[in-house]
Design goal:
Elements (H helix, E strand, L loop, with lengths): L4 H15 L9 E4 L6 E9 L5 E11 H4 L4 H19 L10 H14 L11 H10 L4 E8 L4 E5 L5 H9 L4 E9 L2 H4 L10 E3 L1 H7 L4 E6 L2 E5 L3 H4 L2
Helix pairs in contact: 1-3, 3-4
Length: about 240
């Protein structure tokens, strides 16, 4: 299906009225040329005084390249998928993961009430995702944070900043524990290589699943060494 920014905006306004009681503010709409992501909601984040993130300056995009292989219903379900992300972020809600408890609750509500077929991952991407899983073998340095309020987070750290971040994270009062890993899982290859302290919220189940292949990194005698570990004993 060929799409335009005007089409996305019209469907956004329609679904806003139908599914979200018209409460969503229309964000900037654009077409992307992505061959990896059907849709994307991006935003700026800033740390609030209470330590939580504030989300602002939203950007809403749908891939015109990938939409060509979809029918109208699939495109509309993709728009709704991204609208759920936008609903959560624009209301300053913090989910347990990228597609966590809040996302699944809204997805199931809309699917039941309006006979939609929104999914977490799109069937049209299955083959591409399988090839990506096989071929993407980048080694990622991942810091896993456990906060004092029980939440978990992860960040992929630029190799040039590992020593600096290791010390910084240990000095932050809200961070109760930090584990460092090296992982080939393609999930972490999508993370930006952090040069600032920004983490991706995740729940412990997702972390255990994504870090199944990972090796633990430890500091010893002024060096970073790799050690095998049981992920479940560290993240629980």
């Amino acid at each position: 299906m060929d799409i335009s920014a005007a089409y996305i905006e019209e469907r956004f306004q329609h679904f806003n009225s139908l599914c979200f009681e018209g409460k969503l503010v229309l964000p900037p709409i654009r077409l992307s040329r992505s061959r990896r992501a059907l849709g994307q909601v991006r935003c700026m984040r800033s740390r609030r005084l209470d330590g939580m993130w504030k989300f602002c300056n939203f950007d809403f995009a749908i891939s015109e390249l990938l939409a060509k292989s979809m029918d109208e219903q699939q495109v509309d379900d993709t728009i709704l998928h991204e609208m759920i992300h936008y609903y959560i972020l624009s209301n300053q809600m913090h989910d347990t993961s990228a597609h966590g408890v809040l996302f699944k609750r809204e997805m199931n509500r809309i699917n039941r009430a309006f006979y939609r077929h929104i999914t977490i991952t799109h069937p049209a991407m299955d083959e591409e995702q399988s090839n990506e899983d096989i071929n993407d073998k980048r080694k990622n340095v991942v810091a896993v944070l456990r906060l004092r309020d029980g939440r978990w987070g992860a960040m992929a750290v630029a190799r040039t900043r590992v020593w600096e971040f290791w010390d910084l994270l240990e000095s932050i009062p809200d961070v109760m524990q930090t584990h460092w890993f090296i992982s080939c899982h393609p999930f972490f290859s999508h993370f930006p290589r952090r040069t600032t302290l920004k983490y991706h919220p995740m729940d412990s189940t997702d972390l255990i699943d994504k870090l199944g292949d990972a090796c633990l990194l430890m500091r010893k005698d002024g060096r970073i060494v790799v050690s095998k570990c049981d992920i479940k004993t560290l993240i629980r």
